[in-house]
Design a protein that fits this description.
Immunoglobulin-like; Hypothetical Protein Tm1070, Chain: A; 3 domains; mainly beta; 3% helix; 495 residues
Length: 495
């Protein structure tokens, strides 16, 4: 025999078809405004910087929203509670506390089938905010049958709750980006609290995030031109911003859509930080070639007096900072541009009215500079095994910058030109001087232990100059210049 199971819900007699199931899991979410008919489970993002400093500072930060047209929070029931039903509800909080001086507004969400159609004010015998929960007692729809109320709506159910005017504090956990504030709770029958109508599953409503992202991107590496005469390396041959200027790095600031403590204002770089301090450290700044340093479109040039020690600092008010700015050094075109390794750029954000703490310092690298030098060679270079001829390699630096060169020895008698020994780096050759190496010295530096025949000697390096192969006939005492060519190519030398 079939039976119809009946329930009494606060004096309303319900068939099992009216209450879809018992003790189901309600869903916590966000409702953007009052009135609202949709709920999203995507948590709001709030600035983690608002909770910086000590735990006491973080816990004292009050955040939330109140009033019409602002963000509210909601619970969507799985069950459809019938008209006239009365219930008690408890909303718990984790990751923060409720500010008890503010009593939240409670509305009931009505729906037909699966869709919310409207919100109506709830009539609760009491709404009690505690630090860790909100207690609602004997709640029901307040305006059923009243003029302008629900007299024209048929087939509706109570499908959820909407909470407005919530204010929170004691949320030191939000100092760490990614941590959240969550709500959970339960709904029970007023007349029989042992009947659980909804177990409200914990859901995040607010998650902390960094409101501004700062990145430092190094400029492309450059090569100084070795063919400028009479002064060497005064221009850049491989550039990223012209022959007499170099983009050391680019700073990018992006807003991530994070909200302030009112849960309504989207923070921008200008509102998330009071200032930006940019420190540039690079060997090029201490050279005689540097003329000015600029954060493009933001600041007037810094002159040599501001960075002759190799470090320059800009303090940029937030209101004048754009989302992207390049740090550019310009050269005077008279002094040689040196070889420099990549330097650093650090960006420090100051606190603002929306921040209790500054964002972490961001550090990146700058472009490096190498010098394009020459590539030359001497062939038929006699090994030290020769009893008649003795060869000498002369490397002349007639530029304006000192530098070392790389010497590579090849077997001149083999068509493939196999490398003999190991390439080596010479001593530093100063401008206007010549380094001379005989075959014995070259073999020793290259690690050649069994010299024989003759070699091709190739030389490359970041200087302006040329190579000579001088041969001495020990029988006749005569000298001859066998240089095939003196200066060719612009092979790059890394710093």
């Amino acid at each position: 025999m079939n039976k119809t199971q009946l329930f009494t819900l606060s004096s309303a007699l319900l068939a099992s078809t009216a209450l879809s199931s018992i003790s189901q899991a309600g869903t916590v979410g966000i409702m953007k405004a009052l009135p609202a008919t949709s709920l999203t489970t995507t948590a709001l993002s709030i600035s983690s910087l608002a909770f910086g400093g000590t735990t006491a500072v973080a816990n004292a930060v009050a955040f939330g929203s109140s009033g019409a047209g602002v963000t509210t929070f909601g619970v969507s029931f799985t069950n459809n509670l019938p008209p006239g039903a009365k219930f008690n509800a408890q909303i718990n909080i984790a990751g923060a506390q409720f500010v008890t001086a503010t009593t939240p507004g409670i509305a009931i969400l009505l729906r037909q089938t699966a869709s919310f159609i409207t919100t109506v004010q709830a009539a609760c015998a009491s709404v009690t905010p505690l630090v860790d929960k909100i207690l609602m007692s004997t709640c029901q729809v307040s305006d059923i049958g009243t003029p302008g109320g629900l007299t024209t709506i048929t087939g509706y159910f109570m499908g959820g709750l909407q909470l407005s005017g919530l204010v929170f504090n004691t949320a030191a956990t939000l100092v760490t980006a990614g941590n959240s504030v969550a709500l959970s709770g339960s709904v029970v029958d007023t007349a029989n609290p042992s009947i659980v109508l909804e177990n409200i599953t914990s859901g995040s409503i607010i998650t902390s995030a960094v409101p501004i992202t700062v990145t430092v991107t190094a400029g492309a590496n450059a090569i100084a031109n070795a063919n400028t005469t009479p002064t060497a390396f005064t221009n850049l041959s491989t550039t990223n911003n012209g022959a007499l200027s170099l983009t050391l790095a680019t700073i990018n600031l992006t807003s991530s859509g994070v909200l302030g403590t009112d849960l309504a204002t989207v923070l921008t770089p200008a509102t998330a930080a009071s200032s930006f301090t940019v420190t540039v450290t690079s060997g090029v700044l201490s050279s005689g070639a540097a003329k000015t340093l600029t954060i493009m479109n933001l600041f007037n040039n810094l002159t040599v007096a501001n960075f002759s020690g190799g470090v320059a600092t800009f303090t940029v008010p937030s209101g004048s900072f754009t989302n992207t700015a390049a740090i550019v050094v310009s050269f005077n075109g008279t002094a040689a541009i040196p070889v420099v390794a990549a330097g650093t750029v650090s960006v420090v954000l100051g606190t603002s009215a929306s921040s209790a703490a500054a964002a972490a310092t961001v550090t990146g690298t700058t472009a490096a500079i190498s010098q394009g030098g020459f590539a030359s060679e001497g062939n038929t270079f006699q090994s030290s095994a020769s009893a008649t001829f003795q060869s000498f390699l002369r490397i002349h630096n007639n530029g304006g910058v000192a530098g070392s060169v790389t010497v590579t020895v090849y077997n001149d008698a083999i068509a493939s030109g196999a490398v003999v020994g190991t390439p080596f780096t010479s001593d530093v050759i100063k401008p206007g001087t010549t380094l001379q190496l005989n075959s014995t010295a070259i073999e020793t530096k290259a690690g050649i232990t069994s010299p024989s025949g003759y070699y091709t000697i190739k030389v490359s390096g970041p200087i302006v100059g040329y190579v000579q192969h001088i041969i001495y006939n020990q029988s006749t005492g005569q000298l001859a210049d066998l240089s095939s060519f003196r200066n060719a190519g612009t092979a790059a030398s890394a710093p």
